[in-house]
Amino acid sequence: MNVDGGAAAEPTLDVSATLSEHEDRIAIFVVNPSREPQKRTIDVAAFAPLVGAVNVSILADTAKANQRDAANCWREPQRVRTTATKTIITRNLLRFEFPALSLTVLEICPKK
Question: Which of 18, 22, 42, 61 could form a disulfide with 94 if both were Cys (CB 3.0 to 4.6 A apart)?
Fold first, then answer.
């Protein structure tokens, strides 16, 4: 797996990948510790020829206040929460913008 780092001045993302025991799912975990969203291209050709939909789960501050200490409280019990979306892989490339101060999980189910 290769992650295009973009310009040298851009903050680094923390990226790791896990293949399930039965090799039917790949999970890519991406932490963006910076206060700015980061656009990246991930080359997933090493896993297999992949195309199609990717399930995305993002844990982040829904208020987008750029506060590292954002937390849920009795006034805002859903401020920090997981949201779900989808993206696609095209020619073994996955392009995505990782939100500021977030954890993103990309779940890929390779076709056999």
Answer: 42
The residue extents of the domains of the chain are 2-108
pTM of the model: 0.86
Q: What is the predicted pLDDT for the residue at 49?
A: 67
CATH code assigned to 2-108: 2.60.40.1180
Contact 103, 60 (CB under 8 A): yes
